[in-house]
Design brief:
With 334 residues, the protein is an alpha+beta fold. It has helices spanning 24-52, 80-87, 128-142, 149-160, 164-173, 176-187, 207-218, 234-244, 307-326, and strands spanning 98-105, 114-116, 122-123, 204-205, 265-273, 280-290, 293-304. Strand 6 (280-290) and strand 7 (293-304) form a beta hairpin. The chain is globular and about 45 Å long. The two termini are 35 Å apart. Mean pLDDT is 80; it is low at 1-65, 67-76 and 224-228.
Length: 334
């Protein structure tokens, strides 16, 4: 209940002559003045209601002649990283399990890579095999040559079936960590460092760097750094994409779970059980197409109790990442 006080300063209404000195004209003036005072009090009451009652609702500006009336302003959108973090709340692990996710909408003009836990470094396990092949192809480009038949056989086995012996051969061929790091500088990866000796699976990386690698592979145009104007050629990118789209059926998990049944995908997964703890590293990187839009996704995790639980976590996170990215292309309700 709103109570409006009508006590006002005396100067709001002019003083009137004493009763004994009033003429008929003065009495008429008094009646007129009282009506004016009453009107002033009503206006004051209404002003008080606006200040203390229902919040003021801003009105849309009037349209100029010949222009359509403007609609209500769209609510501000949160940035993609905040949307991703909110979407991942139900997927976040408990205990010692760690998770990092990054996603990029290839069909958006926004060049932002949305990420969660992007500063965390993880062992790559077998997702490094995409990076090994990209390095091999860059080196072949520099030498103005095609891959040899043996290199192609090893590349196919390394990506499609995740063959470790093939990876060993090609890891040595690129110069191990030194060759990988040099290629990554050209590709714009700033937080990925090759593993020691022949232990390519212990290469350290971040979720954001893995999306940068995917951009170098799946982009329509060249992607290069300031050091070299030349990145992967169109032929090299097509070759990697084709192999990532042909992984064996038992390795069709991870990023592919973010798309509807029958959707297009290309991926590489990595998994290893650490001997010291018995816990699992489970990673997945790749491209998935959802409702005609292409998304690059990387999901890295460690400390999983089992391979099965790790895959489940990675797939939930991949779905959340694509859902968060696609939320920014849906029209606001009218």
């Amino acid at each position: 209940m709103l109570t409006v006080s009508l006590h006002r300063k005396t100067e709001a209404c002019p003083a009137m002559p004493d009763r004994q000195n009033r003429t008929p004209a003065a009495r008429g003036l008094r009646a007129h003045t009282l009506r004016a005072c009453a009107a002033t009090a009503v206006v004051a009451a209404l002003a008080a209601c606006s200040a203390t009652g229902t919040p003021y609702q801003a009105q849309a500006p009037l349209a100029r002649a010949g222009e359509p009336a403007p609609g209500p302003a769209a609510p501000p959108r949160e940035d993609r990283g905040a949307t991703l973090a909110r979407a991942l709340r139900t997927a976040l692990p408990d205990g010692n399990t760690r998770l990092a996710v990054a996603v990029f909408d290839q069909d958006s003009g926004n060049q932002e890579i949305a990420s969660y836990g992007h500063d965390g470094t993880f062992d790559t396990a077998s997702i490094i095999k995409v990076n090994i092949l990209a390095t091999l192809l860059l080196q072949a480009q520099d030498e103005h040559r095609e891959l040899t038949a043996a290199e192609r056989r090893n590349a196919e086995a390394m990506i499609r079936t995740s063959d470790n012996e093939a990876a060993n051969v090609l890891w040595r061929a690129i110069g191990e960590a030194e060759g990988l790091d040099a290629a990554n500088e050209r590709l714009g990866l700033s937080s990925t460092w090759g593993g020691p000796g022949i232990r390519w699976g212990l290469t350290q990386t971040t979720a954001r760097d893995q999306v940068k690698l995917l951009r170098a592979v799946f982009s329509r145009g060249p992607v290069a750094s300031a050091r070299s104007p030349e990145g992967l050629s169109q032929a090299s990118r097509s070759y990697i994409r084709d192999l990532m789209g042909q992984v064996t059926q038992d390795q069709d998990w991870g990023v592919s779970a973010a798309g509807p049944q029958g959707s297009r995908w290309a991926l590489k997964n990595g998994w290893v059980q650490r001997s010291a703890t018995g816990l699992w590293v489970i990673n997945s990187i790749g491209q998935v197409t959802v409702h005609g839009r292409r998304y690059l996704v990387s999901v890295l995790s460690s400390g999983n109790a089992s391979m099965k639980s790790g895959i489940s976590l990675v797939e939930r996170a991949a779905r959340a990442a694509v859902g968060a990215a696609s939320a920014h292309v849906r029209p606001w309700p009218q």
